[in-house]
Amino acid sequence: MSLSRVNASAATLTKNRTEDSVVPLSGMCVTCVDGCIGMCEIGKSAYRGHEVIYPQPFGVITTAAEKVYPIDYSHLNIMGTAVGAHGVEADSDKAIFPAVNTEVRLGHDNGLKFKLPIMIPGIGSTNIAKNNWEGLAIGTALAGTGLTIGENVVGMDPESKIKNGRVVDTVDLKRRVTLFTDNQRDGYGAIVLQANVEDTRLGVQEYGIEKLGVQCVELKWGQGAKDIGGEVKIRDLKKAQLLYERGYVVLPNPTDPEVIKAFERGSFKEFERHSRVGMVAEESFAQRVEELRKAGAKYVFLKTGAYRPADLARAVKFASKYRIDLLTVDGAGGGTGMSPWRMMNEWGVPPVEIHSLMYQYTKRLADKGEYVAPLVAAGGFTFEDQIFKAIALGAPFVKLAGMARGPIAAAMVGKTIGKTIEDRQLPVYVERFGDTIDEIFVTASELRHELGDDEFQKLPAGAIGLYTYYERLAQGLRQLMCGSRKFALEYVARDDLAALTPEAAEISGIPYVMDVDKEEVDAILDA
């Protein structure tokens, strides 16, 4: 059985001529005909070359791998019970799902508080992030969860002011931070400022701490979608040249006279801006953590990608040794921006596997009495059952689920609905619920009551969309937790899961469903 689709995908806007007759290994049509215009990825690569490495159209899409992994989170099921309750009195009138507490406390001083166990990992300099930031930031703030400003935001901003290689003023980063902080309620949630190699050289995190009041900063080793630095496409020659001058890798060289002529002739229409890959070493890691704390960072996080197990071990150990406040581990296949398509599908350790290793390594340190950082498990999660499973699989160490594409989609849909209301062009599918914000968004009355009419009227529809999506996740999670009789997240445990296949059991360490409760079953039946 083939686990991947090769040579044709909606992500690269390619397809096979004979879609029902394809060679599994190569993805090519069984009969490749002389005279075909080249609709497949090979064919498109014959005339657009390296452009076809990336998902398209860039700037208006988010992408994630379509590879079918041998084991995934659907191979684990949540176990319910008819007995007892944890975190509330075992009374049918008290043990109801609205009573479930989904709040989380984090940080060395427990000073970070989230209403839901959700963190949006790094959303950086891509257009899809920038164009939807208003909805993401305000919606996250209203929901009381976490949002990470990803890499390259300052470097990509033409209005950033940089002197002697260090940032002294920004427009986009300032906007991203204040959209969250201006809408934060009762101290819930967190805005996190991430940095890669270029950001560190520019002093982005020091600027964010000193000038914008950022408390949480994150060191970035990588992500699940790719094992190289971030990349975007640039359609403007002047901007490509500006980024080249700021030290980015820009291909082709936008200062080369021949390249400029080719661009002006229309031989190609986009430049690629790439970030450098980091070089992890313990000494430089420790030094950077110390620098950030001295600069005033209250909380220091680390995010790592789907690298080989030895790198995961480094992340877990360094996070322990240097008392990192939160460690995010992102499984292969995730993604929000413009990762190379084949890389996104064929690189890295998949989520169940990397999260199982993450648990093993963390438990090993905890069993020795060493400090272990609270964990965020990330890797394509979209709904409440996956949040529950991620927390249970890594219990008691996993505190949050990292989610990006789902929240972005919710913000985009909310924004689109808002625009169709303004344009009086609501599609029938939505119009059946009404033709105003208050009628269509089920949380509108709640938000209007909490914020007041004036503040509610200022909310962008994208923010209401994200808030409403989170409202659904919150209620769904409470229902699942109630069914497992766990009325606070601290009680969710690995024995709340069962593996549906022996393979899933072997990888995760979660018992096979036919072996769950064996000792208790014997005690009941033999009593």
How would you describe the overall organization of this protein?
This protein is α/β, with parallel strands linked by helices. Among the domains are: 10-53, no CATH class; 107-223 and 291-497, Alpha-Beta Barrel (TIM Barrel), CATH 3.20.20.70. The chain has helices at 41-48, 127-130, 133-143, 153-156, 172-181, 197-202, 204-212, 237-245, 257-265, 282-295, 309-321, 341-346, 351-367, 384-393, 405-422, 428-431, 437-440, 444-451, 453-458, 461-483, 502-508, 518-525; strands at 76-78, 104-106, 112-114, 118-123, 146-149, 161-163, 166-169, 190-195, 216-220, 231-234, 249-251, 271-274, 299-304, 326-330, 375-378, 398-402, 497-499. The chain has an eight-stranded parallel β-barrel with strand order 4-5-8-9-13-14-15-16, surrounded by seven helices. The protein has a three-stranded antiparallel β-sheet with strand order 10-12-11, covered by helices on one side. α3 crosses α20 and α15 (405-422) packs across α20 (461-483). The longest helix is centred in the C-terminal third of the chain and has 23 residues, at 461-483. 46% of the residues are buried.
Notable features of this structure?
TIM Barrel; 22 helices; 527 residues; single chain; alpha/beta; three-stranded antiparallel β-sheet; eight-stranded parallel beta barrel; 17 strands; globular
